[in-house]
What we know:
The chain is α/β, with parallel strands linked by helices. The chain is 26% helix and 19% strand. The strands form two sheets. Strands 5-4-3-6-7 form a five-stranded mixed sheet. Strands 1-2 form a two-stranded antiparallel sheet. β4, α2 (74-85) and β5 form a beta-alpha-beta unit. The longest helix has 12 residues, at 40-51. 34% of the residues are buried.
Amino acid sequence: MSIYDFEVLDAKGNKVALSDYQGKVLLIVNTATGCGFTPQYNDLQALYEKYRDQGFEILDFPCNQFLGQAPGTNEEIVSFCQINYNVTFKTFAKVNVNGRNAEPLFKYLKEKAPGSLGSAIKWNFTKFLVSRDGEVAGRYAPTAEPLSFENQIKAMLSKR
Protein backbone atom coordinates (compact mmCIF):
# COMPACT_ATOMS: atom_id res chain seq x y z
CA MET A 1 0.00 0.00 0.00
CA SER A 2 1.18 3.52 -0.75
CA ILE A 3 -0.11 7.02 -0.13
CA TYR A 4 -1.23 7.06 -3.75
CA ASP A 5 -3.78 4.31 -3.06
CA PHE A 6 -5.96 6.61 -0.95
CA GLU A 7 -8.99 8.62 -1.95
CA VAL A 8 -10.20 11.51 0.20
CA LEU A 9 -13.04 14.00 0.00
CA ASP A 10 -12.44 17.63 -0.81
CA ALA A 11 -14.34 20.42 0.95
CA LYS A 12 -17.16 20.12 -1.61
CA GLY A 13 -17.56 16.38 -1.04
CA ASN A 14 -15.85 15.30 -4.27
CA LYS A 15 -13.55 12.28 -4.24
CA VAL A 16 -9.90 13.11 -4.84
CA ALA A 17 -7.37 10.38 -5.63
CA LEU A 18 -4.02 11.05 -4.00
CA SER A 19 -2.49 9.46 -7.09
CA ASP A 20 -3.28 12.86 -8.67
CA TYR A 21 -0.36 14.18 -6.57
CA GLN A 22 2.17 11.57 -7.69
CA GLY A 23 5.58 13.12 -8.26
CA LYS A 24 4.91 16.06 -5.94
CA VAL A 25 6.29 16.83 -2.48
CA LEU A 26 3.34 16.95 -0.11
CA LEU A 27 2.79 18.53 3.27
CA ILE A 28 -0.32 17.00 4.84
CA VAL A 29 -1.66 18.91 7.83
CA ASN A 30 -4.60 18.46 10.21
CA THR A 31 -5.78 21.99 10.93
CA ALA A 32 -8.31 23.97 12.92
CA THR A 33 -9.63 27.49 12.54
CA GLY A 34 -9.98 28.21 16.27
CA CYS A 35 -6.64 26.92 17.55
CA GLY A 36 -3.67 28.74 19.02
CA PHE A 37 -1.66 27.36 16.08
CA THR A 38 -4.10 28.70 13.44
CA PRO A 39 -1.71 31.57 12.55
CA GLN A 40 0.58 28.89 11.06
CA TYR A 41 -1.65 29.26 8.00
CA ASN A 42 0.45 32.37 7.20
CA ASP A 43 3.69 30.38 6.94
CA LEU A 44 1.99 27.46 5.20
CA GLN A 45 0.70 29.84 2.54
CA ALA A 46 4.14 31.47 2.22
CA LEU A 47 5.76 28.05 1.64
CA TYR A 48 3.07 27.14 -0.87
CA GLU A 49 3.53 30.34 -2.86
CA LYS A 50 7.31 29.94 -2.84
CA TYR A 51 7.47 26.27 -3.90
CA ARG A 52 4.25 25.29 -5.68
CA ASP A 53 5.77 25.85 -9.11
CA GLN A 54 8.51 23.37 -8.16
CA GLY A 55 6.02 20.61 -7.36
CA PHE A 56 5.04 21.35 -3.74
CA GLU A 57 1.48 20.88 -2.52
CA ILE A 58 -0.15 21.39 0.87
CA LEU A 59 -3.15 19.22 1.71
CA ASP A 60 -5.20 20.81 4.48
CA PHE A 61 -7.49 18.53 6.50
CA PRO A 62 -9.57 20.36 9.11
CA CYS A 63 -10.13 18.32 12.27
CA ASN A 64 -12.63 19.07 15.03
CA GLN A 65 -11.39 16.33 17.40
CA PHE A 66 -9.34 18.62 19.64
CA LEU A 67 -11.64 20.75 21.83
CA GLY A 68 -13.96 21.42 18.88
CA GLN A 69 -11.51 23.94 17.39
CA ALA A 70 -12.68 23.43 13.79
CA PRO A 71 -16.36 24.31 14.03
CA GLY A 72 -18.50 25.09 11.05
CA THR A 73 -19.09 23.48 7.71
CA ASN A 74 -16.39 22.66 5.20
CA GLU A 75 -17.47 25.69 3.17
CA GLU A 76 -17.21 27.99 6.22
CA ILE A 77 -13.73 26.68 6.99
CA VAL A 78 -12.56 27.27 3.40
CA SER A 79 -13.99 30.78 3.49
CA PHE A 80 -12.36 31.56 6.85
CA CYS A 81 -8.96 30.42 5.57
CA GLN A 82 -9.25 32.39 2.35
CA ILE A 83 -10.48 35.60 4.02
CA ASN A 84 -8.15 35.57 7.04
CA TYR A 85 -5.00 33.93 5.65
CA ASN A 86 -5.33 34.20 1.85
CA VAL A 87 -5.02 30.42 1.61
CA THR A 88 -4.87 29.13 -1.95
CA PHE A 89 -3.82 25.52 -1.30
CA LYS A 90 -6.45 22.80 -1.24
CA THR A 91 -8.67 22.32 1.80
CA PHE A 92 -10.29 18.93 2.14
CA ALA A 93 -13.35 17.76 4.07
CA LYS A 94 -13.18 17.70 7.85
CA VAL A 95 -11.73 14.44 9.17
CA ASN A 96 -10.99 12.56 12.37
CA VAL A 97 -7.31 11.79 12.79
CA ASN A 98 -7.49 9.54 15.86
CA GLY A 99 -9.78 6.78 17.06
CA ARG A 100 -11.98 4.21 15.43
CA ASN A 101 -13.33 6.67 12.85
CA ALA A 102 -9.96 8.10 11.86
CA GLU A 103 -9.53 8.90 8.18
CA PRO A 104 -7.64 5.95 6.63
CA LEU A 105 -5.03 8.35 5.20
CA PHE A 106 -4.16 9.51 8.71
CA LYS A 107 -4.02 5.94 10.01
CA TYR A 108 -1.46 5.27 7.29
CA LEU A 109 0.54 8.44 8.00
CA LYS A 110 0.68 7.68 11.73
CA GLU A 111 1.82 4.12 11.02
CA LYS A 112 4.60 5.32 8.71
CA ALA A 113 5.73 8.18 11.01
CA PRO A 114 4.83 7.55 14.65
CA GLY A 115 5.17 10.51 16.98
CA SER A 116 6.27 10.90 20.57
CA LEU A 117 2.94 9.46 21.79
CA GLY A 118 3.18 6.45 19.52
CA SER A 119 0.82 6.73 16.63
CA ALA A 120 -1.72 9.15 18.13
CA ILE A 121 -1.82 12.71 16.86
CA LYS A 122 -1.74 14.92 19.92
CA TRP A 123 -3.15 18.16 18.52
CA ASN A 124 -4.07 20.28 15.51
CA PHE A 125 -1.35 21.29 13.05
CA THR A 126 0.56 18.02 13.11
CA LYS A 127 2.37 17.99 9.78
CA PHE A 128 3.49 15.07 7.59
CA LEU A 129 6.04 15.59 4.82
CA VAL A 130 5.82 13.18 1.87
CA SER A 131 8.50 12.81 -0.80
CA ARG A 132 7.95 12.82 -4.57
CA ASP A 133 7.96 9.02 -4.54
CA GLY A 134 5.21 8.86 -1.91
CA GLU A 135 7.37 8.02 1.11
CA VAL A 136 6.40 9.60 4.43
CA ALA A 137 9.66 11.41 5.16
CA GLY A 138 8.86 13.39 8.29
CA ARG A 139 6.37 14.18 11.00
CA TYR A 140 6.36 17.56 12.71
CA ALA A 141 4.66 18.44 15.96
CA PRO A 142 2.03 21.17 16.16
CA THR A 143 4.61 23.45 17.78
CA ALA A 144 6.98 23.08 14.81
CA GLU A 145 6.70 26.25 12.77
CA PRO A 146 6.34 25.42 9.06
CA LEU A 147 9.36 27.55 8.12
CA SER A 148 11.54 25.53 10.52
CA PHE A 149 11.61 22.62 8.07
CA GLU A 150 11.77 24.62 4.84
CA ASN A 151 15.25 23.22 4.14
CA GLN A 152 13.86 19.66 4.16
CA ILE A 153 11.18 20.75 1.68
CA LYS A 154 13.80 22.36 -0.59
CA ALA A 155 16.01 19.27 -0.44
CA MET A 156 13.08 17.02 -1.36
CA LEU A 157 12.07 19.28 -4.22
CA SER A 158 15.60 19.17 -5.63
CA LYS A 159 15.39 15.36 -6.00
CA ARG A 160 13.76 14.36 -9.27
